[in-house]
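Please review this pair:
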Amino acid sequence: MTDDKVEKIIWQEIRKRGITFYDMIGLPNYGVEVDPDDKTFTGSRNTRSNRFKETMGSERMKEILCLGEKNPYDDYPPLKISFQDLFQFWFNRCVDREIFVDDVLEEIYDYFLEQMRPPQKEKEMMDMTIEFEQMLLFENNHKQAA
């Protein structure tokens, strides 16, 4: 799927659900002004509840893109767009590549560093068994009891 198709699907979902900028920045369970420029209505007559149930942006994207109704107990619901297509869209349109490339290269370096690490010799474990019968205290207790 192309980046344009991914963006088109996301915009369709935003429009279908009537999500506004104020929904995107507002908190769930709080009122969102329907028309902030309309000063004829004040208070609750110009507000409605936020379209989102979740607070975090990633959770809100799951709400927008999940197949069917979002289940709050499902951390990773099936989405209308594959993860590979979302990742490609993110990488092509959203991320600062110069910063991201350093992180990727560092993690690749760490991976190969671990692969190249020489095997460590197994350390001999110290015998941790205790022979109570050989302890002097135990013998002294027997002599006192006899």
